[in-house]
Amino acid sequence: MSRGNRRIPDATVARLPLYHRGLLELLRSKRTTVSSEALADMTGVNAAKVRKDLSYIGTYGTRGVGYDVENLLHQIGRELGLTQNWPVVIVGIGNLGRALASYGGFSARGFRIAALLDADPTKVDQQFGDLAVRPTLDLAGIVAEHDSVIGVISTPGGAAQEVADLMVASGITSILNFSPAVLSVPDDVTVRRVDLALELQILSFHQQHRGNAAAEPIGDGDHASLLLVEHNESDSVYS
Amino acid sequence: MSRGNRRIPDATVARLPLYHRGLLELLRSKRTTVSSEALADMTGVNAAKVRKDLSYIGTYGTRGVGYDVENLLHQIGRELGLTQNWPVVIVGIGNLGRALASYGGFSARGFRIAALLDADPTKVDQQFGDLAVRPTLDLAGIVAEHDSVIGVISTPGGAAQEVADLMVASGITSILNFSPAVLSVPDDVTVRRVDLALELQILSFHQQHRGNAAAEPIGDGDHASLLLVEHNESDSVYS
DNA sequence: GAAAGCTTGTGAATGCGTGCACAATCGCCC
DNA sequence: GGGCGATTGTGCACGCATTCACAAGCTTTC
Predict the structure, then answer these.
(1) pLDDT higher at A239 or B149
(2) End-to-end CA separation in angstroms for chain A
(3) pLDDT over 50 (residue B112)
(4) Global confidence as pTM
(5) DSSP letter for each residue of B3-44
(6) What is d(CA B55, CA B57) in angstroms, rounded to the nearest whole number?
(7) Which pairing describes strands A66-68 and A33-34: parallel, antiparallel, or unpaired?
(8) Nearest 5 degrees, angle CA B29-CA B32-CA B34?
(9) CA angle, A57 as apex, A53 and A63 as ends, to 5°?
């Protein structure tokens, strides 16, 4: 909407929050303008890429000077929809759900935790901060009370699809999924998945393929001794 | 090493853990073979992409039949280095650090939490599960005791670079960074960043650009009323 | 033992993202 | 008021990733 009419590439969307954070920092240190190169250094991005990214949302820079910090911050915030203070509902109040519930970074960046839900009756009514846990089935009612709720799933993998279905039925169209499950949802629903173990496994790959001479993998070439660590999802961060 | 001699593309590495998890599930349900299409359905990936990804690590399929679940699981696990039971050290025992410490998914997938560290003296010696929190400065000693430690940073953003420097100095070459800070490290160190607020902001973008008729952004075109939610990183998930 | 039916592995085409390089433009100074 | 240094915005070329399409190859059936 407004100026930037071209479609914004996904890769750019993923970096806009990075610039937003960098600009916030500059604002606090009273800088009024910033060059693409300075912003690039702060965010670990190539300077040309910064300029191209910003060009998708409009022409807010001044040649020979740079970008006005305050204005650019506002424009990016508007593009990202951070002016709206989106209500967030967290389903699954295990270790991770609790950590998310007390995460200052959410409320500090345009999000407001509207409710904590859990299907376990022994968890219902427990108090975290100024919110009490409510039964998962209250979801539809809560969504109806707010505009454009964003759903967060921090249940074990086994319950995730069920929760997602409930979210979709309640009218939620944006879901952040912390469970290892791969969710299937209608096309008009956006799901982002954050998988903690997966990230470690990717690191493991790099560690393994670095020259580091750590012990060779066990059972190389002989997979009779198949490693099969138990796969118990119940006593996890989710429950 | 061994068969797959070609370099494996990053995009493929990021998907291997997905296949690994899918295969684990198949193994539990006693399936002995699986086609690329079935695996694709389970993981939400295109079938041709599955085959190409797998072809990078070797030729383990049988035409007309599919892949042997047990063998493929072993091969992917070996490629990812999951046979090694990597020691993981978590620095920053706030809400998130605690959630990670009790995360069953880590120990269930080839990782073992070797130590919990925090710079705050009031946190030191607190017990979580069977581990006591130790001072951050013990890091070098702990790394020396183990092979190929993977570092996890769950401190507030302000302390992250300092912790990263300490990790690098201690010999750690793989870091998982949950803080919002952008770390600068030597080229031979791999850093992956998981930013919870960033994920929500990406969702916010999609929500905003969906046709949904939710209220237009406040202060459109007039950025005098700049949104400036307070940016207090101290009372967060990290502390 | 030949034919039919699957399924893999991969060549080739396409699309997306990245980064260089440079013209266009601005502010500043003399 | 003109020249100079700085910085943006973007055309273009390159490389990586995705997807299609199909030959190669295995198993089963008759």
Answers:
(1) B149
(2) 42
(3) yes
(4) 0.89
(5) S--SPPPHHHHHHHHHHHHHHHHHHHTT--EE-HHHHHHHHT
(6) 5
(7) antiparallel
(8) 95
(9) 70
What is the per-residue pLDDT across B113-169, written as a single tens digit (0 to 9) for each?
Answer: 999 999 999 999 999 989 999 999 999 999 999 999 999 999 999 999 999 999 999
| DSSP annotation of A144 | H
Give the percent of chain B with pLDDT over 70.
Answer: 85
Residue A20, pLDDT > 70, answer yes
Q: Which tokens in the block code for residue A47?
A: 């300077």
CB count in 10 Å sphere of residue B194: 17
Contacts of B83 in chain A (CB under 8 A): 217-219, 227
Q: How far is CA A29 from CA A20, A22, A25, A33, in A?
A: 14, 11, 6, 11
Angle at B196 between CA A238 and CA A21, to 5 degrees: 165
- A interface test, pick of B148, B183, B205, B220 with most A CB neighbours within 10 Å: B205
B87 touches strand C (CB under 7 A): no
Q: Do A197 and B237 touch (CB under 8 A)?
A: no
Query: Can you say how many angstroms the Cα of residue B128 is from the centroid of all Cα atoms in its chain?
Result: 21
B32 touches strand D (CB under 7 A): no
Nearest CA in chain B to A87: B204
